[in-house]
Amino acid sequence: MSEKNSAAKELKEKLLLNRKNAVFKLTDNELAECDSYCEGYKSFMNAAKTEREAVITAVDMLKKNGFCEYKPGMKLAAGDRVYRVNRGKALLIAVIGTEPISAGVRLCAAHIDSPRLDLKQNPLYEDNETAFFKTHYYGGIKKYQWTTIPLSLHGVIIRADGTSVTVNVGEDENDPVFCVTDLLPHLATEQMKRPLAQGIKGEDLNILIGSRPFRDDEASSAVKLNIMKILNEKYGIIEADFISAELEAVPAFKAKDIGFDRSLIGAYGHDDRVCAYPALTAAIDCKAPKHTAVTVLTDKEETGSNGNTGLCSSYLEYFIYDLAEALGSDGRTVLSASECLSADVNAAFDPNFPEVNERNNCAYINRGVCITKYTGARGKSGTSDASAEFAGRIRILMDANNVIWQTGELGKVDEGGGGTVAAYIANLNVDTIDMGVPVLCMHAPYEVVSKIDTYMAYKAFSVFMAD
Ligand code: MN
Ligand code: MN
Q1: Are the CB atoms for 113 and 55 separated by under 8 Å?
Q2: Euclidean distance between the first and final Cα of the chain, in Å?
Q3: What is the whole-number distance in angstroms between the Cα of residue 457 and the centre of ligand 2?
Q4: Which residue in 12, 45, 266, 351 is deepest, having the highest Cβ count within 10 Å?
Q5: How many angstroms does the Cα of residue 270 sit away from the middle of ligand 1?
Q6: Can you give the pLDDT at residue 2?
Q7: Ligand at shortest distance from the CA of 298
Q8: How far, in Å, from the CA of 421 to the mean position of ligand 1?
Q9: pLDDT tens-digit series, residues 188-237
């Protein structure tokens, strides 16, 4: 190599951004650590397909790791590990730090709801001796993707006498599954001429649930009657009980390795459990932090964070106020001194659809956890846009602890856009920045993430909580 070239190489290393695949930055042992961490993640994904199941699974893990339920008025001291469940659908976790609480908390916020098909309030009907459930889709989906795939049914039904029954059908190997039908190509000439968004319409997302009539020639709607009889025997419910139910149809797929090299994971609901699980495990592994570490796993992000289990509600604020009071400060002081990682996914560059991204400013699979300074659409509408100072602090912290990270914006300018809970937390006067795992085919029934990126999210959240 000539002297000139080596000077250029030296200068390049000193001055230019190094955007390499993380494989070149990790040892074999570190790669193996990423892979083994993701075994736990896959198990979590198979157990936690809805927000309610994610809360139950997480609480179980917390209890096994010395956390106890927080009750208002409870005395707290450094090293205490507590959690609190909000209406079975959102979870707050705190590990009390050694610094005074007035120095602020380190907050990690991820969401545990994912796009899916919710049953309508009066879902059961029969058409031409076939029984269906009517649905109303939840979150942003491409509707055509939700036909002809196996679906499982999860949720809770409150019966007329006030008792509740939990539903989970389609996950066990011996369970039946359900599906939304689609037209055969032979007869789809007209359907195929429609724009993709209208190929399958919202009211076409009807779930097939049975076809055998109750054996009585006199009865009409006998297939519906037979299904209701089965449901009554199994769950003790009558048709009116659907009115007080939350039933969610989700893909029945299991989380699996993707690729001959097993570098990726395919699963339903990576958005945002691929950040929720790293935040949860980071909280569990957080032993004696300086600042109190708070983790929130929230509901309703996919529909705009409204409602009392979404982050536009006051439940997070109230929890911080409770902690502040218990530890001799006040909520306003604590929030104003706090920092937050809004742990949500970003879109990974897809070589099959390169045109929607600007290649210098998008996230790539295997380049580590993605820091997103701002989200929003059009002219950064609806974003909190983290300050240069806070972005600088986080970047320096990550580098000092060998976290592999990248930056990325969701798509080209004016291509579309999206938001996270970052703005709602920043609105509480908390320094907030988005950080999460890049996802391929986000919001599809089967999403894809990299094992390295998932582990780097865990490492990033751990480092942040310990600081
Ligand atoms: Mn998300
Ligand atoms: Mn989403």
Answers
A1: no
A2: 44
A3: 17
A4: 45
A5: 9
A6: 57
A7: 1
A8: 9
A9: 999 999 999 999 999 999 999 999 999 887 778 899 999 999 999 999 99
In terms of pTM, does the model score above 0.85? yes
* Six token digits for residue 354: 């390169």
Report yes or no: 77 and 86 within 8 Å, Cβ to Cβ: no
Supply 343's token pair: 């742990």
Structure tokens that stand for 308 in this block: 């009392």
Domains contained in the chain, CATH given: 17-114+268-466 (3.40.630.10), 116-251 (2.30.250.10)
Residue 43 bridge partners (DSSP): none
Radius of gyration (Cα) for the chain, nearest Å? 24
Ligand 2 centroid–CA 114 distance in Å is 7
94 Cα to the center of ligand 2, angstroms: 25
Q: Is 220 exposed, middle or buried (0-12, 13-18, 19+ CB in 10 A)?
A: exposed
Distance in Å, CA 301 to ligand 1 centroid? 7
Q: Model confidence over 38-82: pLDDT tens digits?
A: 999 999 999 999 999 999 999 999 999 999 999 989 999 999 999
Longest dimension (CA), the chain: 95
User: Is there a contact between 83 and 69 (Cβ–Cβ < 8 Å)?
Assistant: yes
Q: 1-5, 6-10, 79-83, 385-389: which range is least confident on average?
A: 1-5
Q: How far is the CA of 115 from the centre of ligand 2 (A)?
A: 7
Ligand 2: distance of its center to the CA of 13 in Å?
A: 36
How far, in Å, from the CA of 273 to the mean position of ligand 2?
Answer: 10
Q: How far is CA 384 from the centre of its chain?
A: 20
- How far away, in angstroms, is 1 Cα from ligand 2 center? 49
